[in-house]
C-alpha cells in the first residue's frame, strides 16, 4: 500500500528544475499547463507530486543530521579518516559550523527548493479552469507543505526571505522572525477551512486538516522564543482540534517500536503527517537523495552483510553498514526505566544472535586494537561489545576514534527505525513521522505547564501519564515539572529531528555535552550560507557569523 502511494506521487513528476543554489527564488520549468492539468481530484494529486518529491529530499538524512548532531542526541566522529566529511560533522558537535558547512548549505537549498516548487505549482494550478472545493482543497494542501518548509527554515535560520510569487526572481531581503511567524500563521488559518478531514490511506503522506493543526500547535508552542509573545492558549486550542477529533490514538505499549519499522504506513495510529520512503523509487531528477538511510549510519558493521567470520548478519540487510553515528552516555541516561519499551530502540553492551549465542568476530590483535597491539597480526576472536563512551583516541583535532574494532564499536546505537531486510539496497522503506499524536498530547501538557489554561478536564500530569501508560509498566507520575516534560520528550521523540527545537525552547542548547563546551546563544540559529548571500546580496547575515 505504501509503495502505491509513493508511486502515485512520482508517476508523473513533470518538473525539471534549474536550481538557483541557496536562493528562495527557484526558477522552475514544467510540462503542466492549464490545457493538460488538472480536471479532477486525482489529477490534482498527481500534479502536486513534485512538491512531495522534493519534500522527501533531505528530510530523512541531511535535515535529521543538522537537527540531531547539533544536540546531545547523536555524535558522528571519524573512524580512521572515514566520515570526516570536510569537518561538517565535528562542526555540528562543537557548534563551530561555518557559512559553508555542508548541512547548513544543503538544507537551505532544500527548503528553498520546496518553497520554489510550491510557488510554481500553486501558480499553475491556481490558473486552471477547474473551480470549487476540489481545487481549493488541493491548493490549501500545497500551501501547508510550503508553510512547513518556512517553519523549518525560520526555526533553523532565523531571518529568511519571504517569497510566494512564482517567476519573481527579484532579490528579497530576509525579514524578522515575527514577520515569517505571522505569514505561516495566516497561511494555516486561511487554508484550514479547505483542507480534508480524511485520514488513513486517502491522505497518507499528504497535508490534511490535522497536519495543519499540528503545525499550528508547534508554531504557537515556540511563539515566545520566535516573537517574544507567548501563545500557549492558542497552542492548546490547536491541540484540542486534533484530540477532540478522535481520529488518532496512541500506539499500545506492545506496538511503540512497530510504528517505526520498515512496514509502517497508513495504518500507523499515531502518524498525523509522515514522509513516505521506498527504496524502489529513488529520485534521480533532483539534487536531493530522497532516501532513508538510518541503518547505514547506525547498525554496527559486524551486524550487517559481512564476510564469514567477520561478524553475523543479525538484521539480514544486504550491505555492510558504515556505522559512524552513535549517542553519548549523557543522552542514553534519559532511558533509565528498565520497564520502558522505548529502551528497545538501543543497541548496547554484548551482542547475541537470535538463538542466544554470542556474536563473535574474528580479526587480528591489531585489527581489534591497533593502538595497543600495533603490528600484531595473530588471529583474535572476541564477542561484539558496543561500549558507551566515544573516545577520540586517534586524533582529537580530526575528531577521530581510530580504524579498528574498538573504535567502530564505540557508542550506543539507535535502531528506532528498524533495519529493513526487505530492501534490495541500503535505502530503507521506513516512513519518517513529522507529527505524531503523542507529540500533540505532550505539547498540550507543556503549554498548560507554561501558563496556558487547561481544557476538557485535562492536566499536564494526566496528559503525560496517558503517554507513559503506553510506554512503561512503571507507576504513573504523581507530579510533573518542565524538566520532567523535557526528559519525557527526549525519550519519546529520539531520532525524530525535534531535539534541537526542544533543547532551545527549554534553555538547554548552550549546555556542555560530549566534547562540546560552546555556549554562544547566537548558535541557536545557523548562518546564512555564503553562496546564498552571493546570489542574493540583499540577505543580511545572522549575528555572530
TrEMBL record:
GO CC annotation: cell outer membrane
Top-rank taxon: Bacteria
Signal peptide from the UniProt entry: 1-22
Main location: membrane
Lineage, uppermost ranks: Bacteria, Pseudomonadati, Bacteroidota, Chitinophagia, Chitinophagales
Organism: Chitinophaga silvisoli
The keyword Membrane is annotated on this UniProt entry: yes
Location of this chain's protein in the cell: Cell outer membrane
Coiled-coil portions: none
Keywords: Cell outer membrane, Membrane, Signal
Family note: Belongs to the SusD family.
A Pfam family reported for this protein in Swiss-Prot or TrEMBL: SusD-like_3
Domain SusD-like N-terminal: 87-221
Name of the protein: RagB/SusD family nutrient uptake outer membrane protein
Amino acid at each position: 500500500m505504501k509503495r502505491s502511494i509513493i508511486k502515485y506521487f512520482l508517476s508523473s513528476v513533470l518538473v525539471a528544475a534549474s536550481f538557483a543554489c541557496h536562493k528562495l527564488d527557484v526558477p522552475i520549468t514544467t510540462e503542466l499547463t492549464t490545457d493538460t492539468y488538472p480536471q479532477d481530484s486525482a489529477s490534482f494529486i498527481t500534479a502536486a507530486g513534485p512538491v512531495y518529491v522534493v519534500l522527501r529530499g533531505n528530510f530523512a538524512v541531511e535535515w535529521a543530521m543538522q537537527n540531531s548532531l547539533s544536540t546531545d542526541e547523536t555524535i558522528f566522529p571519524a573512524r580512521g579518516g572515514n566520515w570526516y566529511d570536510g569537518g561538517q560533522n565535528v562542526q555540528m558537535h562543537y557548534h563551530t559550523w561555518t557559512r559553508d558547512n555542508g548541512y547548513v548549505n544543503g538544507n537551505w537549498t532544500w527548503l528553498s527548493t520546496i518553497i520554489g516548487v510550491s510557488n510554481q505549482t500553486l501558480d499553475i494550478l491556481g490558473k486552471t479552469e477547474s473551480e470549487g472545493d476540489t481545487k481549493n482543497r488541493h491548493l490549501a494542501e500545497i500551501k501547508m507543505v510550503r508553510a512547513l518548509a518556512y517553519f523549518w527554515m525560520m526555526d533553523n535560520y532565523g531571518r529568511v526571505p519571504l517569497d510566494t510569487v512564482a517567476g519573481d526572481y527579484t532579490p528579497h531581503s530576509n525579514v524578522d522572525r515575527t514577520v515569517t511567524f505571522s505569514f505561516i500563521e495566516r497561511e494555516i488559518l486561511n487554508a484550514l477551512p479547505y483542507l480534508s478531514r480524511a485520514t488513513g490511506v486517502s491522505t497518507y503522506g499528504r497535508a490534511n486538516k490535522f497536519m495543519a493543526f499540528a503545525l499550528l500547535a508547534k508554531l504557537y508552542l515556540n511563539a515566545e522564543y520566535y516573537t517574544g509573545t507567548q501563545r500557549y492558549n492558542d497552542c492548546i486550542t490547536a491541540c484540542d482540534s486534533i484530540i477532540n477529533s478522535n481520529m488518532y490514538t496512541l500506539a499500545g505499549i506492545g506496538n511503540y517500536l512497530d510504528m517505526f519499522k520498515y512496514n509502517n504506513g497508513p495504518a500507523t495510529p499515531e502518524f498525523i503527517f509522515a514522509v513516505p520512503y521506498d527504496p524502489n523509487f529513488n529520485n534521480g531528477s533532483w539534487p536531493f537523495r530522497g532516501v532513508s538511510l538510518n541503518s547505514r549510519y547506525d547498525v554496527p558493521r559486524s551486524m550487517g552483510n559481512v564476510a564469514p567470520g567477520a561478524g553475523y548478519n543479525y538484521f539480514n540487510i544486504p550491505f555492510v553498514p558504515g556505522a559512524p553515528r552513535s549517542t553519548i552516555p549523557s543522552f542514553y541516561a534519559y532511558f533509565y526505566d528498565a520497564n520502558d519499551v522505548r529502551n528497545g530502540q538501543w543497541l548496547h553492551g554484548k551482542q547475541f544472535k537470535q538463538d542466544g549465542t554470542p556474536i563473535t568476530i574474528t580479526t587480528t590483535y591489531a585489527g581489534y586494537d591497533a593502538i595497543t597491539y600495533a603490528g600484531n597480526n595473530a588471529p583474535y576472536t572476541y564477542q561484539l561489545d558496543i561500549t558507551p563512551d566515544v573516545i577520540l583516541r586517534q586524533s582529537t583535532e580530526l575528531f577521530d576514534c581510530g580504524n579498528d574494532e574498538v573504535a567502530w564499536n564505540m557508542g550506543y546505537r539507535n535502531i528506532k527505525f528498524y533495519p529493513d531486510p526487505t530492501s534490495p539496497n541500503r535505502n530503507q522503506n521506513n516512513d519518517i513521522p513529522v507529527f505524531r499524536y503523542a507529540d500533540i498530547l505532550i505539547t498540550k501538557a507543556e503549554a498548560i505547564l507554561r501558563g496556558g489554561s487547561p481544557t476538557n478536564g485535562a492536566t499536564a500530569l494526566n496528559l503525560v501519564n496517558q503517554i507513559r501508560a503506553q510506554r512503561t509498566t512503571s507507576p504513573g507520575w504523581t507530579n510533573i515539572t518542565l524538566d520532567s516534560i523535557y526528559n519525557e520528550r527526549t525519550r519519546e521523540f529520539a531520532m525524530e529531528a525535534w531535539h534541537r527545537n526542544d533543547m532551545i525552547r527549554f534553555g538547554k542548547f548552550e549546555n556542555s555535552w560530549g566534547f562540546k563546551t560552546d555556549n554562544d546563544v547566537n548558535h541557536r540559529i545557523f548562518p546564512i550560507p555564503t553562496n546564498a548571500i552571493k546570489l542574493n546580496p540583499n540577505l543580511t547575515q545572522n549575528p555572530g557569523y
